[in-house]
User: What shape does this take?
Amino acid sequence: MDVDIFIPCFVDQISPEIGENMIKILQHVGCTVHYNPKQTCCGQPQFNSGYTKETQELARKFIQDFEGDRMIVSPGGSCTGFIKRRYASLFDNEQERQAAEQLSSRVFDICDFLVNVLKVTDLGATFNGKVTIHDSCSALREYGMKDEPRTLLKNVKGLEIVEMEESTTCCGFGGTFSIKQKDISSAMVEQKVRFAVDSGAEYITGTEFSCLMNINAYIERNNVKIKPIHIVNILSNF
Assistant: This one.
């Protein structure tokens, strides 16, 4: 299968190995991967901050950058959820709305794509350790994904899943929320990390790098003995 890949801004600028490992996974399951270097932000930060005009401009560019009918795979439920659920509502023009709807139907988080499109649940990966899972707000509530990451992790040799208390509670990132509401955000991430540690896990994983980046900042500041790792970096160990 030929697929396009979309690499979100945070991944591209801060943790590009997540994108590289996603390509490794896709090629491992037989996909031919296409990458358009002209791709940029999907517009979610602008949308969440109320900049509708700027969001529309980025959405138009995104639709143009991903013309065609190939499925678009991305390592994160936040941007993909935004595109799937919000793009069409940005436009009053019927032609643009239809183009947005057509695009939205082709966008998938990597975990959803593997389990529900390719019907792949075992990548032959190995990862030794106890792992707890953070369900990011955007992946869970906007994209609508919870079971797929667990399905894939259950088939990783050497990995033990230990569920934390309140795995679906927000980590406090929320894009600009962590800046505008710093004190509340700090309390939320402290709680999230405490729940993760109390689970007995050695690692905390998830599908959303921005959440893990926020969690990691707290861990490093406070010398907490747990390691954040994106799910793609676990699944690519084959």
About this structure: The first strand starts at residue 2 and ends at 5.
